[in-house]
């Protein structure tokens, strides 16, 4: 008998098994979300609903629910926490779009474009406050500790990214620190809190944290790669958005390091905002192809994806585990 | 023997007794504040320190400390909570200045002017997250419930104010709802949590909540009045700021209601942004004087001030009580 080693390339990956796994729980989470974004101030549910009802994948609450299944948790205490996680994420998106001046998200006009920056900032604050109210209802100081820490780390990561903006000299290590904070921390926390609710030992918490964290990094790397390969609409995100905003992402970092003097001059001009035309973007795509920068960004993503899968290798076989493995495979395959 | 009725006009009011009362505790709170705004990302302590170290009165943490003294609490658990309250307040100020596009606060250039809106939004988020981390450290779910609720109410109040912006038809009742949420809620929570930490009965919590809430309303009313009487610098705020931003505050609501057709036309033009010159502001001051709108805004402030004082009438006489009464008198006397 040989060991079963689960591999990323084992099958055509889909998010379906995870969606099916958590469908019943997600109905409860959605009910909490709809109920708790209510307010006497009509602008709040209107603006929040635009984003929350707007076709997001609910990836983070889904991870809380799937992790709870993996642990065989049968209760309902995690529903309100999964909603809190989604509120934190939504608040972050609202503020991100203000910070980046974005005009499109998930294929729709952003809230800041429709209602203005002030409304997006304040409704983000409301959702963030509401997420803590939800956590308090669950009465777990440990969960509150995990999620308040994740929130501080996210904000720190966003500030780190802001101070790195339009800086051509960003090393891969610092870029990884940034996405670890601004994306992976909430993935990790979303998974970890399931183990807290299920009252499992610290080792299970750590395993789920590692699963979420590595999946989060993989997820962000693929997002960054997609900017240089996809057509508008694949992710509800315009190809070239990051390029036009002069964002330092891994495809740029690799293409820059591997390019010649002329290429480096081009990237410097682009990152510092002097090259943002369609022709410039076409040239950028040429450069990332020539240097295999997108391929290798995706290879890095698969590395983290495999680590995510191995982090939960110790849990017994189950539908939940299969779904969690396949979700990783799906996440890293999105760019193809 | 006659009852001792404490009255607002009993003495020349000062904040000194309260400052002296809490000086030792405040050293501990300041140490927590300095320690917890640290970050590996230099922009965070730099930007946060600009506002936090920038000569604020620390009114809200001071109220937590004074309330604890009133209750005879001898412990130190409230220090970290008082710091959390100041962090919530600071996060709110950072976001407020972005929302209002303000350029001056406490006599200094605002963070959004120096570092830009994105940095102010994100550092605000960081401080807000950090405040919840501090609350978790204090391990009181009840305090977490009070402060997360206050935070949601503040954000709701800010959105309410935003949707009321430049609307000439704002009734006094809705204006009071707005300041109850955006200012008084945190004053109330700051006082109430002292009773929770001191493990006092619900009646004491409610009394301190009422003290803080009424003081907060009085405080905001006086702030709104000062905009129409003071010279730049009295509050580190320019006289006429609210006027030039077309803000509906109580002086405007009263002057509008009491004015004739010509006056009403003037106020409508001002609130809708068509009159914001120095000459317009001079005319506005004439109108609020003629209609006694500032005097009566201050009379309303004294009404709430007296209610604040009466809310703590049931507590035994003490230095803390005297200081809390005098702080109210000071707050409502600021405009003279």
List the defining traits of the structure above.
homodimer, 336 residues, mainly alpha, Farnesyl Diphosphate Synthase, 15 helices, 2 strands, globular
What distance separates the N and C termini of chain A?
A: 34 Å
Rounded mean pLDDT score of chain A: 91
User: Approximately how much beta-strand content do the residues of chain A carry?
Assistant: under 5%
How would you describe the oligomerization state of the chains in this entry? homodimer
Question: How would the blueprint of this fold be written?
Answer:
The structure is a homodimer of 336-residue chains.
Chain A: H1 16-36, H2 43-52, H3 59-70, H4 77-100, E1 104-105, E2 108-109, H5 111-115, H6 117-137, H7 141-164, H8 172-197, H9 202-226, H10 241-244, H11 250-258, H12 261-271, H13 278-290, H14 293-311, H15 319-333
Q: How would you explain this protein's 3D organization?
A:
Two copies of one chain form a homodimer. Chain A is globular and about 60 Å long. Chain A has a single domain (2-333), classed as Orthogonal Bundle (Farnesyl Diphosphate Synthase), CATH 1.10.600. Chain A is 71% helix and 1% strand. Chain A contains 15 helices and two strands. The first copy, chain A, has a two-stranded antiparallel sheet. Chain A is mainly α and 336 residues long. Mean pLDDT of chain A is 91; it is low at 232-236. The A-B interface holds A 39-44, 91-92, 95, 98-99, 117-119, 121-123, 125-126, 128-130, 132-133, 135-136, 139, 141, 144-145, 148-149, 151-152, 154-156, 158-160, 162-163 and B 39-44, 91-92, 95, 98-99, 117-119, 121-123, 125-126, 128-130, 132-133, 135-136, 139, 141, 144-145, 148-149, 151-152, 154-156, 158-160, 162-163.
């Amino acid at each position: 008998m040989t060991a079963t080693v689960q591999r990323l390339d084992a099958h055509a990956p889909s998010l379906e098994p995870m969606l099916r796994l958590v469908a019943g729980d997600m109905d409860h989470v959605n009910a909490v979300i709809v109920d708790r974004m209510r307010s006497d101030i009509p602008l709040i549910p209107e603006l929040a609903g635009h984003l929350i009802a707007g076709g997001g994948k609910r990836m983070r609450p889904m991870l809380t629910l799937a992790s709870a299944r993996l642990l065989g948790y049968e209760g309902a205490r995690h529903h309100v926490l999964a909603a809190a996680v989604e509120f934190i994420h939504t608040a972050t998106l609202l503020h991100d779009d203000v910070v980046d001046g974005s005009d499109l998200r998930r294929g729709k006009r952003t809230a800041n474009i429709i209602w203005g920056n002030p409304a997006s900032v304040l409704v983000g604050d409301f959702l963030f406050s509401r997420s803590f109210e939800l956590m308090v209802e669950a009465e777990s100081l440990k969960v509150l500790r995990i999620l308040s820490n994740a929130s501080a780390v996210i904000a720190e990561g966003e500030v780190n990214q802001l101070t790195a903006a339009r800086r051509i000299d960003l090393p891969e290590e610092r870029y990884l620190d940034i996405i670890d904070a601004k994306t992976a921390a909430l993935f990790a926390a979303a998974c970890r809190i399931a183990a807290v609710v299920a009252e499992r030992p610290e080792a299970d918490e750590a395993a789920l944290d590692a699963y979420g964290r590595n999946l989060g990094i993989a997820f962000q790397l693929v997002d960054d790669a997609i900017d240089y390969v996809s057509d508008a609409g694949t992710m509800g995100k315009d190809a070239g958005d990051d390029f036009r905003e002069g964002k330092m992402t891994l495809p740029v970092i690799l293409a820059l390091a591997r390019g010649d003097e002329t290429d480096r001059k081009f990237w410097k001009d682009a990152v510092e905002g002097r090259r943002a035309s369609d022709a410039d973007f076409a040239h950028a795509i040429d450069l990332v192809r020539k240097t295999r920068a997108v391929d290798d960004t995706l290879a890095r993503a698969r590395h983290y994806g495999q680590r995510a899968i191995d982090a939960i290798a110790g849990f017994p076989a189950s539908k939940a585990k299969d779904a969690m493995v396949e979700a990783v495979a799906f996440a890293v395959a999105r760019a193809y």
